[in-house]
Amino acid sequence: MTDTADTAATPLTEEDVARYLQRTPEFFEHHAELLAEVRLHSPLSGRVVNLQERQAEMLREKLRIQEQRLTDFVRYGGENMLISDKLLRWSRQLFRVGRPVDLPAAIMDGLEHIFSVPQVAMKLWDVADVYESEPFALGASENVKSLADSLRQPYCGVNAAFDAAQWLAEPTQAASLALLALRDEGAEHAFGLLVLASPDSQRFQAGMGTDFLERIAAIASDALSRVRNDQ
Questions:
Q1: What is the CA radius of gyration of the chain?
Q2: What pLDDT score does 66 carry?
Q3: Facing residues of 155 across strands?
Q4: What is the distance, to the nearest Å, from the Cα of residue 118 to the centroid of all Cα atoms in its chain?
Q5: Which residues, including other chains, have CB under 8 Å from residue 215's CB and lie 6 or more apart?
Q6: Mean confidence (pLDDT) of the chain
Q7: What is the pLDDT of residues 178-221, one digit of tens each?
Q8: What are the residue ranges spanned by the domains of the chain?
Q9: CB neighbours of 9 closer than 8 A, spacing ≥ 6?
Q10: CA–CA distance, 159 with 186 (Å, rounded to integer)
Q11: pLDDT by residue (tens digit) across 130-180?
């Protein structure tokens, strides 16, 4: 005798229906009259609409999202162009520095005035003997050097009582920081640390893009080779 539970039909689920329609795209060609009976709730208007109206709403929403993305691309493109122009101005300014000893001040001054960074500080180590007594070559602790060595990309975020923040003229006004290690390309160890600070806690925040900051660190590192090698 056959068990009733075995012979009972298994109820169809929504997933079963969806899979059937996916496997049978010609279903509505054979039953086109059903399309006119389909009624959907519109999240935009709150009304119950037919399938054609809902499809039109979905298309309009997709177009709106695409237009917004295009607007964002244009805006970001304009912002990136402005930053690129500032990077070029800053780089050209460094080329015009005659004496190597003046390079650290020129780097910091350009970042403050061209990029509008409220506070900038920098310390170097392993410089040429002739520059060992310069202010920029004094004051970097072993903790700071270890921190710089560990930074494979710029740190952006809150000022977590970093020793390097004390190099700033007003460390209490540094709500957010960007810490940029200075090193030769491909080198494991850093030879300096650049500190950018702002009283705005959102100016340098975790998760922000660091592409331009990495370029700043690379340009500054190359420029400072004159201080290290006394060329």
A1: 31
A2: 72
A3: 179
A4: 20
A5: 87
A6: 84
A7: 999 999 998 999 999 999 999 999 999 988 889 999 999 999 99
A8: 97-229
A9: none
A10: 28
A11: 999 999 999 999 999 999 999 999 999 999 889 999 999 999 999 999 999
Collapsed DSSP state (helix, strand, coil) of residue 163: helix
What the block records as the tokens of 29 is: 């060609």
Cα gap 190→149, rounded to integer Å: 5
CA distances from 146 to 4, 141, 164 (A): 75, 9, 12
Amino acid at 28: F
CA–CA separation, 178 vs 202, rounded Å?
11
23 is written with which tokens? 């496997």
How many other C-beta atoms are found inside a 10 Å radius of the C-beta of residue 139?
A: 14
> Do 157 and 177 contact (CB within 8 A), yes or no?
yes
First to last CA, the chain: 100
In words, the CATH class of domain 97-229 is alpha beta
161-171 pLDDT, tens per residue? 899 999 999 99
Helix (H) or strand (E) holding 66: helix 51-95
Q: How confident is the model at residue 36 (pLDDT cuts 50, 70, 90)?
A: low
